[in-house]
Amino acid sequence: MAIWQLLLFIPACFALNMAPGPNNLLSLNNARCYGFRSALFAGFGRIAAFSVMIALVASGLAVILFASETVFFAIKLAGAGYLLWLAITLWHSEDSPVAEVSSAKSLLWLARQEFMLAAGNPKAILIFTAFLPQFVDSTGPVSTQFFTLGATFLVLELSAIAIYALFGIYLRHWFCKPSRVRRFNQACATFLAVSGLNLLFSKQA
């Protein structure tokens, strides 16, 4: 892989990492509720899900997976249902859900939440299928290039998680009134619900 290809990939990839979406919103809200370290730890659940997706794309299994409309619909249905469940939970959450997460079980629960949200979105693997191959030189070692691009994507994704978590910490200090927290929770819940409905009614291609 030529160095110029990687230099073109990094800014395009980081823009994709930073795009607002359900997972980034979850990192922001986790930091606001539980602190920066908890949100960053939870983000490794998303990294694990994306690692599996990148491995599927690199091995070519993604093509087989999405050749089946039944499998695609099952994943989409599960992902949309999980988004809607999160939306309902957040809408009815406490006005001031600031708490410290110290137990391993609670941290693992947050990480599992990130993993489920990322894994339940079939559009994510479609993005990898369409995005990563554009920067692969077919005349060179394809597997090595996929590993390099995938690793770079995951590092940039972790950076995006940290940025959204820092913004969540900033919001934590801004929400001194329960009414602000309630409106923010409802706005986030609405966004998640819309994302879930959009995923549910979207087509495969």
From TrEMBL:
Protein name: Lysine transporter LysE
Keywords assigned by UniProt, alphabetized: Cell membrane, Membrane, Transmembrane, Transmembrane helix
Any one GO CC term of the record: plasma membrane
Entry keyword annotation includes Transmembrane helix: yes
Taxonomic lineage of the native organism: Bacteria, Pseudomonadati, Pseudomonadota, Gammaproteobacteria, Alteromonadales
Native species: Pseudoalteromonas rubra
UniProt GO MF annotations: amino acid transmembrane transporter activity
Domain of life: Bacteria
Record-linked InterPro entries: LeuE-type (IPR001123)
Membrane as UniProt keyword: yes
Transmembrane region(s): 39-66, 73-92, 146-171, 183-201
Membrane association type: Multi-pass membrane protein
Compartment(s): Cell membrane
